[in-house]
Each structure stands twice: as C-alpha cells, then as structure tokens.
Amino acid sequence: MNRRHFLKLMVGTSAIALFPLQPASARGAVSPYVDQLLKTSEILTGHQGLPAAVAERLSTLLTKYNARFPQQLARLFTRLTMLSENDRQNLAEKLDDEDVKTALAIISPWYLGFTGHPSTTKAKDDAEFVTFLSALMYEPTQDMTIRPSYARAGGDYWAEVPTGVIAPAMPDTIREWGDKAPKPASSIPAPGAPWLLMVQGKANTLAEAEALLATQ
Known about the structure:
Blueprint: H1 3-10, H2 13-18, H3 32-45, H4 52-65, H5 69-81, H6 85-88, H7 91-94, H8 97-112, E1 114-115, E2 128-129, H9 193-199, H10 206-214
C-alpha cells in the first residue's frame, strides 16, 4: 500500500465536513507553531478540539527527528488552507508526494499514540510516546470496547452481572478477591513430561504424549 492510498484511508472525509476548526482563541496559550500543527491535525483527522499539550509534545518529537519539519508543516498547512470543502473529499489527490509524507507523519501519532517505528527485535528503537488516552484509534469503538489496561467501570467492575445476563449466584466475598490474589510462586516448577513432548512436536495431544511415555 503506497503512502497516498494509506492517507486516503486515514482521512475521514465525512468527518472533516462535520467538524469545523476550533478557533485559536479557544486553545489557550500555545505558540504559533503548535497552533499551526493543531489546525493541520484537525483538518487531516476531522476531529475538533485536539489537545494542545499532545500537539506540543508531538511537534517537539517530529522536529527532533526531522529538522525540516517546521518548514514542511508550514508548506502543508498553506496547501490545505487553499483547498475548498469539495477539494477535501479528495484530499490525498490534491497533495504532492512531499505533502503526503508530511501529512502521514502528523496523522500516524494522533491515531497510534507514538512516533517512530517500534521494534520487538531491538533493545532500543526510535519510537517515542506521544499520548495514550488521546490516541484516536480507540475512538471508533469506544462505545463497545475499553482502552487497553483501563477498566471501564473501575476496579472489580466485573463483579456486577451485565445487563441482560442471567448468572449463577456469586460468592459473598467476590469483591474481596482482588485483595486476596494468590501469592507468586517462589520457584518455577519443572515442566511435566507429557507437556515437554507436545512442545517438542513429538505428540499432538495429551493422550498421545501419555501413550508415548508408556512405551518408554
């Protein structure tokens, strides 16, 4: 998938028409550079009122790894403000390759919550945290799913039976389970022989592993 096609998927054209830009006076005290990044981000994502603190952190990180980013941002912002509402429906087609690259550098952290490229094979990579609570990728399903690591209804929310569910009677002490979790083991027990055979690919099921052990 090329950059332009990816940008077309990420830019919500219907949302752009529905969410007008927040006026600079409502943003509080932000630098002209951060305000420009906020306006550009709102045009690209279609979201109104993006957090200025996140934009400030994002501007610092994007400039850290690309000294030319302020100039690239100004170029993209000028281009976007020249487009009409109808042009925004085909936004990616109206931008040249350099502007598309800049737009993706801005949009990706707003949705993913980080800049750079995380790696699972390196001790250190160029990824840096931008935001978790404000990451836009969680917005489309927020009415059905919770953000990872956050309980929608607080601690032990699962103790309450969901609406419409008929559940068996719960123990009286169910709300205390969170404080009475089993203590961690002081040592790791040796793996069982059947399990080892399955891990080694010598048996596919527990029954096969036990049968193989019986012949040894």
